[in-house]
Amino acid sequence: MALQLRDELTRALLARLSLFAATMDRDAVLAPEATRQARELMSCVADPARDPQAVGAVAGLYRARSMLLTGEAAAEALAVADALQGLAGPGDDEEALDDGPDEPAGDIVARLAELDRRGALLEQAAVDSHGDVELLAQAEEATRATVSATPRALLPQRASALRRLGSILRLRYEAHGDPARLDEAIQVLREAEVSHGSGHPERGALATTLGVALRLRYERTNALGDLEESVRFGRVALAAADDDRRAALSGPDGTEEDPNWAGCLHNLGIALRLRHERLGEPGDLQEAQRLGREAAAASVPGHPGFGMIRLGLGNATTGEERIAAYEQALAGLPSGDPARPRLLGSLADALTQICVRGGSPAVAARAGALLDEALAAVPDAHSDQAQLLYLRGRLLVAGLLRTGTTLGGVPTRGLDDALRCHRAAATHPAATPRVRLWALTHWANLAMVADDVRQAAQAYEDAVALLPVLTPRNLTDTDAEHTLTALSGLACDAAACHVAAGDPERALALLELGRGVLLGRGLQGRDDMSELARQDPHTAERLLTLRAALDTPAPADADRVTDGATAADTRHVLAGEWHDLLTEIRTTRPGFRYFLQPPPVSDLLAQAADGPVVVVNVSRFRCDALLLTRDGLRVVPLPGLTLDGVRQDVEAFLTALRGFTDPERDLLADPDRQDVLDLVLRRLWDTVAGPVLDALGLDGVSARSSPRRLWWVPTGPLTLLPLHAAGHHREAGRAVPRTVLDRAVSSYTPTVRALAHTRGRAEHARRRSREGDGRIRPLPRRAAPDGFLIVSVAEVPGAESLERAAEEASLLARTLAGARVLDGADATRGRVLEELGHHGWLHFCGHGVTEPDSPSRSRLVVHDPADRHLTVADISRLDLPGAELAYLSACGTAGTGAALADEALHLASALQLAGYRHVVGTLWETDDAVALELAERTYSALGAPRPVAERSAQALHTAVRAVRDLYRDSPWFWAAHVHVGM
Known about the structure:
Layout: H1 2-23, H2 26-30, H3 32-44, H4 52-68, H5 71-88, H6 94-97, H7 105-128, H8 133-149, H9 155-176, H10 179-195, H11 203-221, H12 224-249, H13 260-279, H14 282-297, H15 306-316, H16 319-331, H17 340-356, H18 361-377, H19 383-403, E1 406-407, E2 410-411, H20 415-427, H21 433-449, H22 453-465, H23 467-470, H24 477-485, H25 490-500, H26 504-514, H27 517-523, H28 530-535, H29 537-551, H30 567-588, H31 601-605, E3 613-618, E4 623-629, E5 632-637, H32 643-659, H33 671-696, E6 709-714, E7 745-748, H34 752-768, E8 788-792, H35 803-815, E9 820-823, H36 829-836, E10 841-845, E11 848-849, E12 859-860, E13 870-871, H37 872-876, E14 885-889, H38 907-914, E15 918-922, H39 928-942, H40 952-966, H41 971-974, E16 977-981
Helix pairs in contact: 1-3, 1-4, 1-7, 1-9, 3-4, 4-5, 4-7, 7-8, 7-9, 8-9, 9-10, 9-11, 10-11, 11-12, 11-13, 12-13, 13-14, 13-15, 14-15, 15-16, 15-17, 16-17, 17-18, 17-19, 18-19, 19-20, 19-21, 20-21, 21-22, 22-25, 25-26, 29-30, 32-33, 35-39, 39-40
């Protein structure tokens, strides 16, 4: 019983010392209850020399008291501590401190409290100095020393030190933009979270610090998981602050407020505002505004968060309330407050927006004065400098638009100043990637206004080079799509500037780098790694393992993994390892400098060996066709094509298509919509296809046999229109037809790199099939009957019944005797995925769903009780080396949306990525009867019952031409089907 009491009292005193070390709470060590516990504990100790842990705890209590008391009382407490330490002797605290230093527990706690206090003072000094480099470095060094000196047995003290280290690392990131420091901050804060008990007095402070760090990482990367966690930790911090506030209000005076309360309201409000901006939930914005107003009401001048709280309120509101929040904050802040520069910049930005809408010169002058004050207050090396310089450039542009003289309708006065500001922001060493991107694009645009295409080309090239930084491998497909939506058209504008500057090869390279980013991520690691495997099989295996881990989707609920980490943290670690391993391979191994990078232009040009590849670049600056031919790269200017014109045609085309989905429609009796489609096809011929085919000499007449092959790579909104069907189809009697269908066999590829990848896989398969005599055994030209997989899903709950799908599957099953058929309830997601690995040919007839804003979620609808279907993301992760042809008789399987048009990510390109050399898909919903006829004609032209995959493009072309000849006036019937691949 005495031993149990001794253990309880020892733990109680150590808990008091932990609380004192974490919070400097005087009552923890000075309360009468602490004296009683110390006396009771000493009465339980028979031999102090044999119980150093208990005696050390009492000694630590009195040593902590000596730090708080003064005069004789302090000296007496210190004397008691020294006397007790003498009674305990040198001691051995290994049991108590898990192999920590040979020092009594009480002394360790007191010493750590002093170290922690020093780190806190340095941290606050760094904050007050607006992120002074030297002070932050000293604070980090001191706090790392505290962490290193804290035995792991002292979990509360270690958690406190880790929280402070995480806070300092976050501050260093905010000041200088090093993402590695932010990642480490989150890592150490996770460790602190594990070390904290649920009742630890710092639980709210830790939740606040971790939530803010996660929010900052979201703002840098757009990783939604980080933002969701930031909201969660914000709520934890607010609940803890509410508990503390209630406890304070129920205290003796009943009036004390927790100073953290307003800050917690503020931090949660910021996270909710960001989530509203990402997901569009009105409730998040309403709650963010409510929290911001409550935080402002709970803070008065002199409150440590007074300025930042009103900054948050202003950012969550609009109009006069926004400006009033900034003005109120500035009026209540001293000139040296670290929040002041950001408030000045935000108010200047709000005033700049008024200037853009025609505000007075006085408003512009005040905005400029605010920015001058902010720039003067921020250290040159701080990342806020870049943001402020960018805002200064925007203000100057607003002034040009309001008052400047013009050249050709474009303002010119003051242009050099605006250029200098954006250039300075873009090249600032601490600029965040997002600010750098904004500044680079504005710099490039202004350079084009100044008619300096070379300067514009360089700025745009630097902007495109940021894409890998903005879409790292750790991002999920959905997060990367969100980032890329805001960058639509960037690569096309960059290419247009390089064409104007006389460098079409660089234009092509930038289009390959800046378009199809998600597709490129999928290609990375699937390219031929045989040479690396031959030289270093261990490294090749490591790379494949990392790729597989990164390709594995995160759990839907983002469950914790280990040691407080989440799936998002794990992806950050994996992406870092991937990057480091690629860097090592490229820099240390001869011949691997460009390993798993986009191929050089010479390799891209080689893709024209089997026929020209036409990259049609659509930009607001100019539009051109880049022709990759056996003779090299040519540029065909397209003066009749404009970005606005393409957008108008897309809108008209899609509006007409939507009219065909009415179940009561009479397709043949609806000439108006067909006329709209025909008009767009004629314009596509006049502005794009006609000039291109004329330049290539493809007249469809001189060819002795069938028309020649041609690969299209449209860009921007042009990806939504059927270039392969461009032409004047209703005119007859011309010696040289003005239609693509009559002059070339069209195929599509999302990027030239994707085409090179598909051909490279085919060539690699041929190399692997070498026989013993060294001859190359060709790939089988004709498919074996058991090589076919037919998937038919005619009936799905909640979807329109597809009677023709079952008929189509039955017809093909008879034509392709021995084919494996999955239909109805057998066509589950799991069964289809399993069977794909055993069959080289796929025919799918059923529903296809296109998700324009999130193409990785576009899907083939299968029979699955859990409503899990075959998504683009699922298919893209497959690796099917024996795949030949996938024929998708479903709606919209080769189409995407305008927001992510340059990603060209759809079901057809996903199947190409998975390994299919040929894919037949559709750009829109088609007529079931016509779809059945096209499938029957295509397989017949392929040579069924033993079809030849290499004939795919020609076979589809033959089938489409035949149906076109039946319905020349009705493009909706025959223009949707496309061939993608080799």
